[in-house]
Amino acid sequence: KDQLEVAQTALDHNDASTAMKAARRVLKVWPLSDYAPQAQYLIGRCYEADKRDEKAFTAYQQVLEQYPKIENFQEILQRQFEIATRFLNGQRFLLFGYIPFMTSMEKTSDMFAKVVNNGPYSDIAPQAQMDIGTAREKQSEYPLAVQAYERAADRYNDRKDVAADALYKAGLAYNKQAKSADYDQSVAGRAIATFIDFMTLFPNDARVPEVQKIIASLKTEQARGSFHIAEFYEKNNKSNGALIYYNEVLLKDPESPLAATARERIDLLKKQTVQN
């Protein structure tokens, strides 16, 4: 107890070095005492005071795993969340524990996942789950981002604000993926389906008009993909396949500029078929 008080007093006076030594001594000499959990917590506080956030997060994780009944569990969880948020916002991880080196959304998403696992129904868990998706988007890992958002929508469906935001962001992540997937019509289709779910479940959400515009854009994207596939078949002298996909352009976005071109190609291909 006395040694723990030394550690706490030192930390209160901004002497992280002395506090770290005292806290470690508690764990080394009295590892099974009632004061060990708080000593492990103070180690995390010392790392955080020295701006060594990754080590602080790990120290807090050890506390929560080894001493899940610790009195200040929620405070420690909050500290983990705040550390992960700093990394999400661009703080760099340290090389050799001291040299600012690089950001890592992989490590950051893992941190948020630990926060969620530590307290799945805590006040901060829904935001932590959403932030996994944000970190994955920053990696351009859109399928993983969608997975994180959909998990948030499913797990926290009783919180309408979270569920609505999660579905909306899942649709946006699909939309980003669709823009780089010319020949993957399923991505745009999943984006549209997700946005339709959003509008059905939350018809009064202020974002519905925006979503309607995105759906229209996605249908244009689908038409563009079908058009490119049709061109591919036509260049390879596969008229039947080309006709199928040119017709899909008309079905998916009949008012688009591509639709007019598709009609012309359909007429030409039909004439060629008759002539042959």
Account of the 3D structure:
There is one protein chain. It is built from 13 helices and two strands, in the order αααααββαααααααα. The chain is mainly alpha-helical. A two-stranded antiparallel sheet has the order 1-2. Helix 11 (208-235) packs antiparallel against helix 12. The protein is elongated, with a radius of gyration of 27 Å.
Offer a concise description of the structure.
The protein has helices spanning 2-12, 16-29, 36-49, 53-66, 73-88, 105-118, 125-138, 142-155, 160-178, 185-201, 208-235, 239-252, 257-275, and strands spanning 93-95, 99-102. By secondary structure, it is mainly α.
Describe the secondary structure blueprint for this structure.
Elements: H1 2-12, H2 16-29, H3 36-49, H4 53-66, H5 73-88, E1 93-95, E2 99-102, H6 105-118, H7 125-138, H8 142-155, H9 160-178, H10 185-201, H11 208-235, H12 239-252, H13 257-275
Antiparallel strand pairs: 1-2
Helix pairs in contact: 1-2, 1-3, 2-3, 3-4, 4-5, 5-6, 6-7, 7-8, 7-9, 8-9, 9-10, 10-11, 11-12, 12-13
The helical percent reads over 70%
Strand content: under 5%
Taken in chain order, the helices and strands follow as HHHHHEEHHHHHHHH
Q: Order of strands across the biggest sheet? A: 1-2
